[in-house]
Task: structure prediction
Amino acid sequence: MAFAFSSAIRKQGLFIPFLNSVRAMSSSGGPTPPFTSLSISRPADTITHVEICRPEKRNAMNKAFWLEMVDCFNQISEDSECRVVVFSGAGKLFTSGIDLMGMASDILHPEGDDTARISWNVRNTIAKYQETFSVIEKCPKPVIVAVHGACIGGGVDLITACDIRLCTQDAWFQVKEVDIGLAADVGTLQRLPRVIGSRSLVNELAFTARKMYADEAKSCGLVSRVFPDKETMMAGALEMAGEIASKSPVAVQGTKVNLIYSRDHSVSDALNYMNTWNMSMLQTQDLMKSAQAAMEKKSLKEIVFSKL
Result:
């Protein structure tokens, strides 16, 4: 249903009115139709809030979630109104990870007549699940994730694909996959080493499935800020999002694209890519507007930048 909705709104240009219609929606309002696992709201004109909204199931990631995330972030990528995304979880915790009961058929009973065909189908299934979080990285808008309580298994895959990670003092993180008999396969083992920087620590977390608490997460660089509670954290996330949204969208989105490119390429290749990128992106009115604001000692929040 989510993919059918996506196709329809893209053809009719209805996504922005759709988001505007739920602008005042609170996290307690439940999922935003047609989504069944996500709530989408607009706390400010240029900020989109996406929330995992299955609190009664501890925000476990069911089949609908894996599809709806791709649909949601593809739409956000095309939404010229949105400049920043805040991502969080409803209820008492961020997420308990994959919904094993809901996903058992895909994992334990793949289709196929022989080993080759079963393997082919399993590979395609894993690729689809990987895209659920890769789509966050591909979205040119910065994504701030706010974690409270538990962030287990697939939750770690999710947050490592985000640009800025915040958490509450009671948050804890767990690479849980080895405890259920598999190697994490949708992003943690690829992104966490780049986020933390310590191979030894990553290996320890992945091999033992031990919990990492907020203070350790802050000290190793998994998160950049720790807040006393969820309410304070969400206020901080929205304040940060507002600060980012006040900047030139050409500058911000170009920065995200080049940061990710630089992470995966040599310095020489990344500089060449940056050169090619800015030979056109420097030809923007945003540069002159920003420079003039600096000379006049004005806040960028007073400057109107065109949509991107």
About this structure: The longest strand covers residues 38-44. Residues 1-26 have pLDDT under 50 and may be disordered.
